[in-house]
């Protein structure tokens, strides 16, 4: 009888877990084969997970990955998600996996990029590690478009905070390869200006040295917006004390000047780093708004 009761208990636990645990399918790919990572130095730095700002994050990424989540009600759209973290860590769940799964519910395919954290101990050119990974990820998504039933002309980027800076760089820096260019961007509480404060941040977290005059010009992103810049969806809060709301409004103004489609949503409250948003301040509405926007491009 005791054995039977134990079996019933085990079956009951398994049944409960099968009902309560979320089930989703994801395919993970390495961006680069071992030994072929651009600008990589020999090192013994190891990636690890921790907690920052009350959420699970990843530190010291040296082996970047691309994790693809395919939507069941497939719209043919693919969004490459770039989590934030100031280029010192990545909020890979809060601004990555959670967002991908929410997009899937809207019929939008998503892929989370775990890009290399800039580090002079692991890279000869740490400032190029994130953008090189982003371009490789976009190229891979174009190559896999048929596999995931994606329209190759509807592959865009979505970035949060520093990830939004990376998404903006991917949108405005020139490249010879069309497959490395996003077709649209979603920039969530991002960075677009080269203020003194932002330049100090980039020199500390990305370059690890003063930028050259050419690099300053290259990082003056607003000046690089033109009529070929991808359409953008912008989200920001007026009370953001990390990335000023002007980071979004001035980028939107540049897009408007060059007749590039742009939609912007500004929240009175919300602060910074809210990911999918919060019901109490209304920031949880942005993803549904983005879904409508991107499906009508």
From TrEMBL:
A molecular-function term among this protein's GO annotations: hydrolase activity
Q: Which domain of life is it from?
A: Bacteria
The answer to whether UniProt assigns keyword DNA repair to this entry is no
Q: Which organism is it from?
A: Thalassotalea agarivorans (Thalassomonas agarivorans)
Traced from the root, the source organism's taxonomic lineage reads:
Bacteria, Pseudomonadati, Pseudomonadota, Gammaproteobacteria, Alteromonadales
Question: Which keywords describe this protein according to UniProt?
Answer: Hydrolase
Protein name, as recorded: Acetyl esterase/lipase
Tell me which residues make up the BD-FAE-like domain: 76-255
Chloroplast among the record's keywords?
A: no
> One Pfam family for this entry, by name?
BD-FAE
């Amino acid at each position: 009888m005791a054995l039977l009761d134990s079996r019933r208990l085990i079956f009951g636990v398994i049944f409960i877990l099968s009902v309560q645990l979320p089930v989703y399918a994801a395919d993970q790919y390495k961006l680069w084969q071992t030994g072929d990572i651009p600008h990589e130095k020999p090192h013994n730095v190891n990636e690890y997970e921790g907690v920052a700002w009350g959420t699970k994050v990843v530190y010291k990424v040296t082996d970047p990955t691309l994790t693809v989540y395919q939507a069941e009600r497939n719209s043919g759209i693919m969004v490459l998600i770039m989590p934030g973290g100031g280029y010192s860590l990545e909020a890979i769940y809060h601004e990555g996996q959670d967002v991908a799964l929410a997009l899937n519910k809207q019929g939008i395919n998503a892929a989370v990029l775990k890009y290399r954290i800039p580090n002079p101990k692991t890279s000869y050119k740490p400032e190029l590690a994130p953008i090189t990974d982003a371009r490789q990820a976009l190229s891979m998504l174009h190559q896999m478009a048929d596999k995931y039933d994606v329209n190759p002309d509807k592959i865009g980027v979505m970035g949060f905070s520093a990830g939004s800076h990376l998404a903006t760089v991917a949108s405005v820096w020139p490249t010879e390869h069309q497959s490395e260019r996003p077709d649209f961007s979603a920039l969530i509480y991002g960075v677009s200006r080269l203020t003194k404060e932002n330049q100090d941040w980039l020199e500390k977290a990305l370059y690890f040295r003063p930028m050259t005059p050419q690099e300053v010009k290259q990082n003056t992103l607003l000046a690089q917006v033109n009529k070929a810049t991808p359409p953008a969806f912008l989200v920001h809060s007026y009370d953001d004390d990390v990335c000023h709301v002007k980071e979004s409004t001035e980028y939107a103004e540049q897009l408007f000047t060059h007749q590039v489609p742009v939609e912007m949503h500004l929240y009175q409250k919300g602060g910074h780093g809210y990911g999918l948003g919060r019901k109490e301040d209304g920031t949880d509405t942005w993803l549904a708004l983005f879904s409508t926007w991107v499906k009508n491009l």
